[in-house]
Design a protein that fits this description.
- InterPro entries: NAD(P)-bd_dom_sf.
- It comes from Succinivibrio dextrinosolvens DSM 3072.
- It is built from five helices and ten strands; from the N terminus they run βαββαβαβαββββαβ.
- It is of the alpha/beta class and 215 residues long.
- It has one domain: NAD(P)-binding Rossmann-like Domain (Rossmann fold), CATH 3.40.50.720.
- The strands form two sheets. The chain has an eight-stranded mixed β-sheet with strand order 3-2-1-4-5-6-10-8, with helices on both faces. A two-stranded parallel ribbon has the order 7-9.
- The longest helix is centred in the middle third of the chain and has 18 residues.
- The chain is globular.
- The mean pLDDT is 92.
C-alpha cells in the first residue's frame, strides 16, 4: 500500500507517517514547509492548494490530517480538503479525512449531533471549532464523485496518554463506554487510522473509534 499524508509535519501527521512506515506502507509526506518532517519516504513541499493529481496518482489513499484537526488554521473556503476533492474527482485514489466528534450523532435515533447536545459543555473557542467542522462535513457529504471516508475520534482525543492499544470502531454515533467514557489516546487513534486503511472503509462513510481500556 502507498499513502500520501497531508500535513505530515503536524503532531498527528508525524505519527501517521511513522506508524505507516513501521508497517511496511510506503508514504509520501506532503507539507508546506520543511519544519519537523519525519519518515524515510518521498517528500513534497508545496502549498496545499498547489498539489496536483500527478503528486498523488500512485497512492491508494490520501490521509488528510489537516482540514478538520487543524481547521482554525484556515479559512473555511480554503481548507485543503476542497482542493483535494477537485484533483481526485472521478479517480481511483481514495481520501481519508481525520474528522471530529462534533458531527457524530448522540445516539441511535440520529436526531441530534454532538455539537447540538446540551450535555456536552463547550467553551466558546471549542464551540466555534466544532461548528466549523460540522459545516465542512456537510459540504464534504455533498461530494459524490470522490471515494472519501472520515474517521472521527470520541469526545476526548488525548495527546499525552500512551494508550492501551485496544480500541473499537463504530458508525456515525458518538462511541461511549459502559462507564460513560468517550476517550482515545492519540497513539491509539493513529493505530486505528492505519488499520482502517487496511479494512477499506465504505465509500462516503463516517466511522468513529474509541479506546476500550484505560491505563
Amino acid at each position: 500500500m502507498r499513502i500520501a499524508v497531508i500535513g505530515a509535519n503536524t503532531s498527528c501527521g508525524n505519527k501517521i507517517v511513522l506508524k505507516a512506515e513501521s508497517q511496511g506502507i510506503k508514504v509520501t509526506s506532503i507539507v508546506n514547509s520543511f519544519s519537523d518532517v519525519v519518515g524515510n519516504g518521498k517528500l513534497i513541499v508545496k502549498d496545499y492548494d498547489d498539489i496536483t493529481f500527478e503528486d498523488v496518482k500512485d497512492c491508494h489513499y490520501i490521509v488528510d490530517a489537516l482540514s478538520f484537526l487543524e481547521i482554525t488554521r484556515f479559512s473555511s473556503d480554503v481548507l485543503p480538503v476542497w482542493h483535494l476533492l477537485e484533483i481526485l474527482k472521478d479517480s481511483p485514489v481514495r481520501l481519508l479525512e481525520l474528522g471530529s466528534a462534533a458531527f457524530l450523532y448522540t445516539d441511535k435515533s440520529r436526531q441530534k449531533l454532538v455539537v447540538e447536545s446540551d450535555s456536552v459543555i463547550l467553551d466558546d473557542k471549542q464551540n466555534k471549532t466544532d461548528r466549523l467542522c460540522v459545516n465542512a462535513y456537510k459540504r464534504l457529504s455533498s461530494c459524490l464523485n470522490v471515494d472519501w471516508s472520515v474517521l472521527c475520534p470520541p469526545l476526548l482525543l488525548d495527546e499525552y496518554s500512551y494508550g492501551s492499544g485496544e480500541y473499537e470502531f463504530s458508525d456515525n454515533i458518538l462511541p461511549v463506554g459502559l462507564n460513560g467514557d468517550s476517550f482515545i489516546s492519540l497513539n491509539d487513534y493513529i493505530t486505528a487510522c492505519i488499520e482502517l486503511l487496511k479494512l477499506n472503509p465504505k465509500k462516503h462513510s463516517c466511522v468513529s473509534v474509541r479506546g476500550t481500556r484505560l491505563k
